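Schema walk-through. Below, the input block comes first and the output block second. Nothing else is stored per chain. Lengths vary across the set, and this one has 102 residues.
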Amino acid sequence: MPLRFNGELLAVSDSKRPDAVRWSELEIYRVDDGRYVVHTVGRTTHHNERDRFTVTICDGAPEVLRALVRDNGRFTDLALRALSDAATKDAALAAASAEDLT
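--- output ---
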């Protein structure tokens, strides 16, 4: 069942490279009720593999950062690009990014 909500797309980013058989796509949305949706897709063209879809609903900007940080405490380049783009459209994400990424 598709996820439906009213909101604004804040950022879209991907890690696709020429001739890649696997890459990631990331979208960050701000929902009309003030929450955020982080949508990630692990894409593949590799034989016998399927795309992987993940949706994380976040109550606030700090949760968006927590949804994107890796186990080692760092962000991927993909996540940093998406957060940077989203921060230009959302003051709460800009403040969270400035506080947590410096």
